[in-house]
Amino acid sequence: ILxxxxxxxxxxxFILVPLSKSLPRxxxxxxxxxxxxxxxxxxxxxxxxxxxxxxIALSSEFLSNSAPSKSSSQRPLLDAAFVAHPASNVVVPDDxxxxxxxxxxxxxxxxxxxxxxxxxxVKGVLGRQEDEGKGRESEVVxxxxxxxVFATRGDDKVGFERRQAEEAREQAVGWLGKWFVKxxxxxx
Length: 188
Known about the structure:
The protein is 39% helix and 15% strand.
């Protein structure tokens, strides 16, 4: 995926690179990767800000029936997913209703694009799905005092911002690693 020059990255990427163009390309790439690798090779993805919408959408999909493996029609496209500081293009509760992939979220406690009222709705949807036995394992970690983009563009000179970015990175690596071990037959 080609990105615009750095000076344009400050604008909303979901306008510059609309979901209608980027999601089909990502889906095609991941489907191709999934169908051309060994079945026990786990696959995960991470999405930050506007990319969270993509990862949440792909976390609700199975491989298409046209995939070569007989059992692939019920195989999730991803084995695990991580998103951080989702942008306002994520629709709650709709985007979370059909998850088939374990999902970890790192959210900012002071996010103007994904405020705590929205985070609480997400927690409600994920909790209800788990209670009904329909949902996959999930976690939502709130980084108190963090602002939008904390996981990728925090100020390294400000101690708590650097720590929160490092903690979010550790959350992503730990979550994906947990499912990758399970995917390879480990106990997790």
